[in-house]
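Q: I'm writing up a methods section and want to include an example of the input and output format. Could you take the sequence below and give the corresponding predicted structure tokens, formatted cleanly so I can copy it straight into the document?
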Amino acid sequence: MKPIFMCTNGARTYKPADKMSDLICDNYALLQVLSRFGVALGFGDKSVKEVCEMNHVDCDTFLIVVNFLCEDGNRIQDHLKGLSIPALMDYLKRAHHYFLDFQLPTIRRKLIEAIDCSQENEVACLIIKFFDAYVHEVRKHMEYENEKVFVYVGRLLEGEKTEGYNIGVFARNHDQINAKLTELKNIIIKYYPGGADNQLLNATLFDIFSCEEDLDSHNRVEDYLFVPAIMELEKEAR
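A: Here is the clean output for your methods example:
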């Protein structure tokens, strides 16, 4: 799957002096990164560093995430220098809030409107059933991270050790949660009968594809930035 964060700027690496607006014009998907760092629009021609300072965002961490997502491939080396674990955790928590409380509920509302669940339609019922099962998996996955993993890391940052748990436990069980979403897409594309609002259904399907790619990018940040950073922190705490 081609990452939605693939930048159009070749091999360029963004730096603190670059204009924040250039990042967005190069790849509009980076709007999600801004939002998850709590950065609002309206920054004019200010640099990345200036915008980060205005919004009390760790600039190094912001650029590490941006440049990592813009790469074609996954590399751990050279990414961790200057990374703020609290800033990255805040970014991940905001992403969880976005998926659970905004994007997925919005897609569900669009689905219900597009397929007209008021009529007796077995495929329509199956679509909603699959989507709800998928959201349940995502919620379970992210609530575990919020309530277990991030709490563990917070304690680790304060110098506390948790017996019987380490970030490797999370990494080994960090399963991908896109299987049901793939099945849902196939049901809509192959089997949903005509008669729906095609424009709305296609727009909703587009949102589902985008959500899948966004979640994949989110998991990459956890696997290739967050987990290695916590492993280093654990080594220091020994």
